């Protein structure tokens, strides 16, 4: 019986699980750190490092404004005024106004006067030189090429045909200044002078044309532009009419 009871006890002990011993949590002491598993974050903000408080805030503020300050134009630089600054600025303003009026030649004269009269005004002179370059560029664009001698002569013929003998004479004389051996220019000048009623001057220039080219004698004899000279001995002799012919014509 004893053996049987012992076996029953053994089998009963195997079926029942032994309870686990309770685990005792270790509480750290106030002074030590053993057993500490977690440190709670402090609710107070961390202190900034020494010397980085106000300057750091200013840097952050300036960074916010950097996008705006980069686009802003720099303030205009003021001139260093001297006793001659006012007068120099007046000349510069006058030159600029003339440029806007497209009076480039007059503007160039004013700006050159500024450069010569106020050499100490370096800042104003720098501006004047830039405007002077504008004048020279615009003048070169609008400058007409010089007319050749034949072009001037052609303009004289056109004015003669229009009946503006004053302008024709001016063009022919301008052409002769460039070439004094052009017989056709002398001839045309004589014709315009005859139409103006300046007979003596007309005959003098016609004689010069005949000396350079004998053919002009024949042309003048049959040219109606010289009708006012018919009957004048000097003209008749020049063109070869007989003095016995009626009205100076054969």
Morphology: rod-shaped
Overall strand count: 0
The CATH class of the domain at 149-248 is identified as: Mainly Alpha
pLDDT averaged residue by residue? 76
Low-pLDDT sequence parts: 1-15, 31-39, 48-52, 66-78
Count the helices. How many? 11
Q: Roughly what fraction of the amino acids lie in strands? A: under 5%
CATH homologous superfamily annotation of the domain at 149-248: Tetratricopeptide repeat domain
CATH names the topology of the domain at 149-248 as: Serine Threonine Protein Phosphatase 5, Tetratricopeptide repeat
The radius of gyration over CA amounts to: 57 Å
Assign a percent range to the helix content: 55-70%
Largest sheet report: none
What would you say this structure looks like, in words?
There is one protein chain. The protein has 250 residues and is mainly alpha-helical. Among the domains are: 85-142, no CATH class; 149-248, Tetratricopeptide repeat domain (Serine Threonine Protein Phosphatase 5, Tetratricopeptide repeat, Alpha Horseshoe). The protein has eleven helices and no strands. It has helices at residues 2-15, 54-71, 85-100, 104-117, 122-142, 149-162, 165-178, 183-196, 199-212, 215-221, 233-239. α3 runs parallel beside α5 (122-142), α4 packs antiparallel against α5 and α7 (165-178) packs antiparallel against α8. It is rod-shaped and about 110 Å long. 20% of the residues are buried.
């Amino acid at each position: 019986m004893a053996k049987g009871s012992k076996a029953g006890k053994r089998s009963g002990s195997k079926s029942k699980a032994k309870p686990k011993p309770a685990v005792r949590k270790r509480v750290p002491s106030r002074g030590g750190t053993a057993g500490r598993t977690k440190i709670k974050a402090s609710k107070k903000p961390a202190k900034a490092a020494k010397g980085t408080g106000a300057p750091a805030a200013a840097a952050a503020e300036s960074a916010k404004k950097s996008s705006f300050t980069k686009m802003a134009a720099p303030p205009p630089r003021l001139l260093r005024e001297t006793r001659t600054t006012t007068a120099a600025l007046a000349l510069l303003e006058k030159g600029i106004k003339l440029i806007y009026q497209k009076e480039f030649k007059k503007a160039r004269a004013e700006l050159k006067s500024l450069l010569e009269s106020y050499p100490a005004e370096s800042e104003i002179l720098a501006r004047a030189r830039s405007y002077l370059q504008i004048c020279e560029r615009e003048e070169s664009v609008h400058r007409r090429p010089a007319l050749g001698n034949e072009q001037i002569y052609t303009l004289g013929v056109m004015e003669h045909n229009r009946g503006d003998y004053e302008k024709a004479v001016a063009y022919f004389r301008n052409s002769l200044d460039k070439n004094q051996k052009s017989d056709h220019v002398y001839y045309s000048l004589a014709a315009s002078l005859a139409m103006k009623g300046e007979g003596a001057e007309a005959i003098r220039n016609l004689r010069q044309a005949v000396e350079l080219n004998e053919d002009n004698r024949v042309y003048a004899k049959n040219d109606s532009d010289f009708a006012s000279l018919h009957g004048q001995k000097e003209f008749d002799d020049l063109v070869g009419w007989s003095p016995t012919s009626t009205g100076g014509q054969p």
